[in-house]
Each structure stands twice: as structure tokens, then as C-alpha cells.
Amino acid sequence: MPIVTHALEDNGYRTGFTGKGWAPGDWRALGLRRHPNGQEFNALKHPRAVAAGLDQRDYAANFGQFLNQTDAGKPFFFWLGSTEPHRAYDQLAYQRMRRELSQIQVPQFLPDSEVCRRDLAAYYSEIEWQDQQLGRALGLLEEKQLLDNTLVIVTSDNGMPFPRAKVNLYDAGLHMPLAMAWPGRIQPGVTDAFVSHTDLPATILAAAGLPNLPGAVGHNVLRGARLRSHVLAGMERHTYCRPEGATYPMRSIRTRDYLYIRNFAPERWPTGGPDFVSSNKTYHGDIDGAPIKDELPQHPREWALAADKRPAEELYALAADPGQLQNVAQEPAHQEAKQQLKATLERELRETADPRIAGLDPWQAYPYRQTIGFGASFNTALSEAERAKARGLEQHKPE
């Protein structure tokens, strides 16, 4: 499959990036001869030390360097890969931001505790920081009189790094922010249409006057969001958190009324389990290390929602359960809807040649690569203290 940035380069665009680019992994191992994000611009740092947890790289300054080195009139694509709001966070950030913990709205799947509110406030503070850096970058475009002729797309790579959010197919893990601006080309407004990240390549190429990539499944949303009745998602492996790199295979279909999730290996722990030290150096490694993770076992309901093993099928009726807490997959009143969703999901998985629906598992053989120094295998030995803690976390495991 061709890459959108390479298609742009091949048609006269200059490409570059700052912050987090294509990662984790080894793009050369994929047979690529040029970086997926173009030229790197990461040398410039903030002139003063920034708050704990924030990236020292000055995204806007690096973007400015890219613009200054780009010939006038030459089209460009630039990737500003903010590492915020990835963890870790300054847990006193709410004080610096003058935010009251009582103002924090706690999602239904998390406990309403001071630890959780402080962790959420720290998360929000990093989002505010990222917004400030984006504002500076937009200011550079405006100074160079490029803003009106630049398509700006702002989105995220995953849900909030909290239990039952990131690395899950619930809305908290999949519902990404998405804002697009192109003065004079895009009318201001908000849409509730189903849009996927798979639409971005087609949209970017259409803005450049280029055809879509061969085999691409996305749509150009600049023509108006195509009326989808549903959107599909999938998950195999995030961290190396199960013996021999085993994945947690799941697929989902989301409509306006329901979320249906198919867990293909319900005997496995969805978050990696209590006994295996993951590439994140922790048990239940698909939950990022965080104050709320440490506290969560004190809240049996919320811990079970996040870490317990899950049935083969999950179904959530969204009108009555927007937080997706009550699995109604076995309730008689929802059987017709479940069967329809299951049939649609399986049909589209077959049409797109998803190996999982054919009973195949190529992912198990893929080497796990990441950028923090781990290889393809990990030490699974836990200390006695860690095992005691893990056994405490396991007490809410379902029968």
C-alpha cells in the first residue's frame, strides 16, 4: 500500500515533521527507503525549562524552521506530532492552571475520587499546553500569509490514557477529537457524521488535487461527510503484555444506537493480566502506569470494568447507557439488533479480507518493536511484592 506522504512528495510537495513521527517500529524493516513523515525537525527546544511531563521540543519553532527552509510557493505537508497529552503528568498541574478539582467531570467508568480528579486535571492541563503550541504554529502560518491556503487537521492517535479508555474499543478509546480548517473552503460547523481516520488520506490527497491511494477504503470528507450508518474498529496488540507476544483480538461495529464488540479470545486478559510484566514494565500492561491505576483496585466496580476478562460478545444500548457500562448481549430485547450487527461486522470483515474472521492469526508471528530499548522478549519474573500486589488485583476476576 502506498503512503500518502510519499504520494505528496512524488507530486512536488515538501514533507517534514516535529515531535513524535512514525513510531514505534522500524520503517526500514517494512522495505521503505524514505521516512514516512519526511524530514525531521526536532533540534529546537524551549528556551526555558517547561513543566514536568511536558516535551522540551519546541514544536512551533521547529515548524517555523521548516517553513523558513521551504521555497515560497512550494506546497508542503507537515506533521506536528505532539507527545502531549501522553503520560507522565505533573500531578500538581491543576494548581498551576488554577483549576479546582471540584470542577472536573469524572467519566462513568472511573471512580469519583481525589486521586482520579487530580489525574484528570493533569491530563487536561497537557491538552491545554498542546493547544497553546498549536496556536503558535497557526500564528506562524498567518504571519507568512499561508493560513488561508493551508488545510489544517487536528486529531489524536487514541483515547485518553486511563483504564477502560485507551487500548479499548469503547467510545472512550475510539472517539477521537477531529477538527479541520481551511478558510474559504470548509464551512464552519459541527457534524455528528461517522468519520474515520481512514478518511484522512483521501481527504488530504483530494485537497492536493490528487487521486486516492490504490486500495484505500476512506472517503474525502471535504465533499461533506458521507452518510455512514456505522463505523468499524479493531485491536490486536498494543504493548507486549502477554506471554510470547499474544494479542487480544477484538473487532467492533458502532452505530448511533449500539456498540457491538466481538472478543475473539475471551480466555485472555484484555489488559495483559496480573502475572506478566509488560513492555510498560508493569502488570496489566495495557493500562498505562498512573496514579488512578494504582488506586483503581480499591474500587471493585471500576477495576472490574477495566481489567476483568470479558465475554466473547459485548453489546451496549447507547440511548440508555452512553457510558457503555451494561453489557446487554444476552438480553432477549436486544437479540435482533445483536444478530444484525454481528452479521454486518462479519460480512465487512470478510469483504476486507481480515485474517481474524477467517480464523487466521498472523499477528502472533510479528516481532514487537518499540522505541524505548526493549527487544522482542521480556523478563516475566515478578518479585514477591509484585506478585502479592498482582494477587490483590486479581481478586475481582470473574468466575
Please give the structural blueprint:
Blueprint: H1 4-9, E1 14-19, E2 39-40, H2 59-68, E3 76-81, H3 93-96, H4 114-143, E4 152-155, H5 171-174, E5 178-181, H6 199-207, E6 231-235, E7 250-254, E8 258-263, H7 291-295, H8 300-307, E9 313-317, H9 335-351, H10 384-393
Parallel strand pairs: 1-2, 1-3
Antiparallel strand pairs: 4-5, 6-7, 7-8, 8-9
Helix pairs in contact: 2-4
Helical percent range?
25-40%
Q: Which sequence of strands runs across the widest sheet?
A: 6-7-8-9
Based on secondary structure, the structural category is: alpha/beta
- In total, how many beta strands? 9
Query: Which term fits the overall shape?
Result: globular
- Alpha carbon gyration radius: 22 Å
Task: Walk me through this protein's architecture.
The protein is of the alpha/beta class. The protein is built from 10 helices and 9 strands. It has a 4-stranded antiparallel sheet, covered by helices on one side. The protein has a 3-stranded parallel sheet with strand order 2-1-3. Helix 2 packs parallel to helix 4. The longest helix is centred in the N-terminal third of the chain and has 30 residues, at 114-143. The two termini are 44 Å apart.
Key descriptive features of the protein:
single chain; 399 residues; alpha/beta; 4-stranded antiparallel β-sheet; 3-stranded parallel β-sheet; 10 helices; 9 strands; globular; disordered C terminus
Summarize the structure.
The chain is an alpha/beta fold and 399 residues long. It has helices at 4-9, 59-68, 93-96, 114-143, 171-174, 199-207, 291-295, 300-307, 335-351, 384-393; strands at residues 14-19, 39-40, 76-81, 152-155, 178-181, 231-235, 250-254, 258-263, 313-317.
